[in-house]
Amino acid sequence: MKLPTPLLKGRLVRRYKRFFTDIELEDGTLVTAHTPNTGSMKQCAIPGYEVLISRADDPKRKLKFTLELIRVDGFWVDTHTQRTNRVVEEGLRINRIVELADFAVTPEYKFGDSRIDFYLEKESERALVEVKKVTLCCAPTTACFPDAVTTRGQKHLRELLAAKDQGYRAVIFFLVQRGEATEFSPADEIDPEYGRLLREVVAGGVEALAYKTIVTSEENRIGERIPVVL
Predict the structure, then answer these.
(1) Chain segment 26-40, per-residue pLDDT in tens
(2) What is the pTM assigned to this prediction?
(3) Which of 42, 92, 119, 186 could in theory staple to 106 by disulfide, Cβ–Cβ 3.0 to 4.6 A?
């Protein structure tokens, strides 16, 4: 999907109160940008890192700027959480995700006590897909999730296993933002319970898929699949 234009270059000064970042622009101006990411942004929110931000002209907005991308180890990382599902939805609709091709796509499907990101339907086949954004590497070429303990993520895994038991095809989909990654694994040192549950639900029939994104200053789109190592 296309990113906002134009994007302004800058350097990250600091992130604070979760949703705020101070950015120094190329001309030395210091601005505060909204940061649409509730996670820890471990390895990404590092002072001095190159960033790209967008500017909004909406007079109702308190912050005129939004943090869009951070360059980490030579690759642009899209930290904008709200864009994650739109990238995956675009990939689903154009059949870029071959394991999930040719389905009718419905976002935000209520199942149990959760809203699962996507409900897919094709003839008599029904599938539920929950998406997780991955911006962390636990080893030089191993992307991992989560970057903080996630009880919500644990709940989603249990819901997917329940869906599988009810006859759905159930998929946990890791959207990997780190361009250097060649594989994905759970971040056991950060959230061992999530790693345990992921292995449990996969053993129970839930599918785990990991796809990298191709991120440039113009777009973010689905790239290649990488193996999930449990």
Answers:
(1) 999 999 999 999 889
(2) 0.96
(3) 119
